Amino acid sequence: MKRLVVIPLIAALGLAGCASTNEPGAEGQSNNTAAGAILGGIIGGIIANNTGDQSTGKSAAGILAGAAIGGAIGNSMDEKERKIREIAAERDAKALEVQRLREDLLRVSVSSEASFAFNSSTLKPEFKPTLNKVASVLRDDPKVLITIIGFTDSIGSETYNLALSKRRATATANYLISQGVPTRQIVTDGVGEAEPRASNATAEGRAQNRRVEIYLRQT
User: Fold this and answer.
1) What is the pLDDT of residue 92?
2) Structural domains present in the chain
3) Predicted local distance difference test score (pLDDT) of residue 110
4) Closest among 12, 10, 127, 139 to 80, alpha carbons compared
5) Using H for helix, E for strand and C for coil, what is the string for 36-97?
6) What's phi and psi for 17, nearest 5 deg?
7) Which residue in 59, 75, 105, 125 could disulfide with 48, CB within 3.0 to 4.6 Å?
8) What does pLDDT average to over the chain?
């Protein structure tokens, strides 16, 4: 399993602006596809400019090609978002949270209460059918890159929490791989208690902090 430095990665994933569509629906999907096309068009124009080709026709061709690529990326991610939101709707609202961070980037937050027993990195049997469905969305797309990151609350030592977060990320990845998602498309890491979502001073806050996040980036 490949390793990565998490904080720079998340910062990089967040660049180029956010196109957040927290509510599912056709309008949100169309907006994301359009945003992808616009971004692709800009990229195509830059490519055409930087290659030294100043002719109007070829610059336009570069813009159109970039728009087509960006539109395809946005459309593909729209479809994944729709399907994963349908999977999430079948469970408790806090078990699986889906957020569109950018036209090419989706975050799926998995509650550790739903997926792991206390102080364990073994997936709960009752959560596996949900991961089976997520795997079915991912396994046939060689252009989706999957980053899985584990997080914990602050109870226990930093060293122990860091190790636990990594084990849980790896367990999640291994299960997706067992369901046919290619190993080469997945990287994992854990940050322990380092990046809390909420205050660790309350039981509710600690529950929010215990999670696994799956980032899907369409290329």
Assistant:
1) 75
2) 6-218 (3.30.1330.60)
3) 96
4) 139
5) HHHHHHHHHHHHHHHCCCCCHHHHHHHHHHHHHHHHHHHHHHHHHHHHHHHHHHCCCCCCEE
6) 90, 160
7) 59
8) 80
Tell me how many degrees the CA angle 19-146-63 measures, rounded to the nearest 5.
50
Query: What's the pLDDT at 74?
Result: 87
Q: Which residues of the chain have pLDDT under 50?
A: 1-8, 10-12, 14-30, 34, 37-38, 42, 47, 63-65
Structure tokens at 181: 């998602």
Which pTM was predicted? 0.71
The phi and psi torsions of 123 (rounded to 5 degrees) equal -60, 140
